[in-house]
C-alpha cells in the first residue's frame, strides 16, 4: 500500500487545506471557509463516539492506493487522529474496460476496505462518483440526481455500488458518507488516467506542442466537464456542509458541457493554427454515448450553495496559460 498523504486540516477560522502528490487530489489549495461546529453536533456518527470541540482540527487522510494491510492503516489512522477519509483510488472508465478484474478489485474490494475502516474507526468518508454512474437508459439531458442508473462499464457499476453502499451504511449505522458525481475533470497537473474524457486534457498539451490533436471521440460528443479548481472547491464546501442541510448523500455537480469541436474552436481563439482530426475509438465512443450530456445539479445548488466559477471560455484561457507555464518550466518547446 502506498499512503498518499496525511493531512492536517484546520477548522473554524482557519482554512481547510489538503495536499497530495498525485491524481485529482494532487494540489489542493483551498478557499477559506470556516467549518462550523454544527456539522459535528449534527453528526450521529461522531456524537456517539466522542464529543469534539470546535477547536479540534479535522484531520484528513486521502487515499490513492488501497488493498490496505489493515494493521498499518489502522496505525496511521489512530496515531494521527484521523477524522475524515477521502478515497480517490479507482481505475477509470476506459482502462477499467481493458482490465475488468483489476477494476473490480480496486474499485469494489478496495472501497469495501475503506468502508470497513470508516465504520470501525468512526471516520467520515468522502468518495467521488462520476457521470459514468449513468447509462444509456438514464435521462441524458439533463441527468438528475435520482433516476435510472444502469451503467455499462465496470467503472460505472463500481461507482453505483459505492453510492448505494455508502448510503446504506449511512442509513443503517449513521456513517457520515458523502459523495459527489464529478463531470470530466480538467487539470494541468493530472496526466490523463485512462478515462473517456481524457481528450479534453490532452488537447491543450497538443495545442501547445505540435499544434495537432487526434481526437478519439466524434466532434459532436457532448459531455459534462469541470475545471479542477471548481472540483476541489465543491468537494471542500460539500465536506464542510452541516449534515442537517443535506437532503441527499450523493449529489451531481455541474459546470459546463462541451463537445470536442467546441473546445477546439475556443482554443483556436488563442491558437488559430490548431488542427484537430477525428479517429473514433469504438470503446470510448460507446461509453461517451451512454453518459449524460448535461448534469442537473439543482439539489447541490439548493442544499449547500454549489456554484461553479469556470465556464468554457475561462477554462480554456486558464488551461492554455497553465500548460504553457508547465511546459516552459519543464524545458519543453511551446508553440
Ligand atoms: N478525472 C476525472 O475526470 C474524474 C471524474 C469523475 C470522477 N473521478 C474520480 O476521481 C478519483 C480520482 O480520479 P483521477 O482522475 O485522479 O484518476 P487517476 O487515474 O489519475 O488516479 C486514480 C487513482 O487510483 C490509484 N490507482 C491506480 N491504479 C491503481 C492500482 N492498480 N491499485 C490501487 N490504486 C490504483 C492511483 O494511485 C490514483 O491515485 C476516482 O475515484 C475517479 O473515479 C475522476
Ligand atoms: C468522467 C470520469 O469519471 C473519468 N474522467 C472517465 O472518463 O472515466
UniProtKB/TrEMBL annotation:
Catalytic reaction(s) noted: L-threonine + NAD(+) = (2S)-2-amino-3-oxobutanoate + NADH + H(+)
Protein name according to UniProt: L-threonine 3-dehydrogenase, mitochondrial
Pathway where it operates: Amino-acid degradation; L-threonine degradation via oxydo-reductase pathway; glycine from L-threonine: step 1/2
Domain spans labelled NAD-dependent epimerase/dehydratase: 73-254
One annotated GO molecular function: L-threonine 3-dehydrogenase activity
Domain of life: Eukaryota
E.C. code: 1.1.1.103
InterPro entries from the UniProt entry: Epimerase_deHydtase, NAD(P)-bd_dom_sf, NAD(P)_epim/dehydratase
Swiss-Prot/TrEMBL GO biological process terms: L-threonine catabolic process
Natural source organism: Cynoglossus semilaevis (Tongue sole)
Similarity comment text for this entry: Belongs to the NAD(P)-dependent epimerase/dehydratase family.
Amino acid at each position: 500500500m502506498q499512503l498518499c498523504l496525511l493531512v492536517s486540516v484546520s477548522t473554524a477560522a482557519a482554512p481547510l487545506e489538503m495536499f497530495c502528490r498525485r491524481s485529482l487530489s494532487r494540489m489542493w489549495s483551498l478557499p477559506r471557509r470556516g467549518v462550523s461546529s454544527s456539522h459535528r453536533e449534527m453528526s450521529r456518527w461522531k456524537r456517539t463516539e466522542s464529543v469534539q470541540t470546535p477547536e479540534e482540527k479535522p484531520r484528513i487522510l486521502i487515499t490513492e492506493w488501497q488493498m490496505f494491510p489493515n494493521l498499518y492503516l489502522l496505525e496511521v489512522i489512530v496515531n494521527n487522529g484521523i477524522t475524515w477519509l477521502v478515497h480517490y483510488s479507482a481505475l477509470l472508465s476506459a482502462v477499467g474496460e481493458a482490465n475488468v478484474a483489476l477494476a473490480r478489485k480496486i474499485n469494489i474490494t478496495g472501497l469495501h476496505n475503506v468502508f470497513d475502516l470508516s465504520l470501525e474507526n468512526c471516520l467520515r468518508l468522502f468518495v467521488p462518483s462520476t457521470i459514468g454512474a449513468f447509462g444509456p437508459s438514464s435521462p441524458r439531458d439533463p441527468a438528475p440526481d435520482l433516476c435510472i442508473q444502469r451503467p455499462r462499464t465496470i467503472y460505472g457499476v463500481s461507482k453505483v455500488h459505492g453510492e448505494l453502499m455508502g448510503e446504506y451504511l449511512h442509513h443503517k449505522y449513521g456513517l457520515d458518507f458523502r459523495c459527489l458525481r464529478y463531470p470530466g475533470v480538467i487539470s494541468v497537473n493530472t496526466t490523463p488516467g485512462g478515462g473517456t474524457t481524457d481528450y479534453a486534457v490532452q488537447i491543450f498539451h497538443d495545442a501547445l506542442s505540435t499544434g495537432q490533436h487526434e481526437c478519439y471521440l466524434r466532434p459532436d460528443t457532448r459531455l459534462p466537464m469541470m475545471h479542477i479548481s471548481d472540483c476541489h472547491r465543491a468537494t471542500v464546501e460539500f465536506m464542510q456542509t452541516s449534515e442537517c442541510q443535506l437532503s441527499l448523500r450523493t449529489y451531481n455537480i455541474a459546470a459546463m458541457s462541451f463537445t470536442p469541436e467546441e473546445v477546439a474552436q475556443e482554443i483556436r481563439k488563442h491558437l488559430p493554427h490548431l488542427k484537430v482530426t477525428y479517429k473514433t475509438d469504438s470503446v470510448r465512443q460507446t461509453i461517451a454515448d451512454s453518459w449524460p450530456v448535461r448534469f442537473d445539479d439543482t439539489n447541490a445548488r439548493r442544499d449547500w450553495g454549489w456554484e461553479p466559477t469556470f465556464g468554457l471560455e475561462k477554462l480554456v484561457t486558464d488551461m492554455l496559460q497553465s500548460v504553457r507555464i508547465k511546459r516552459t518550466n519543464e524545458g519543453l518547446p511551446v508553440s
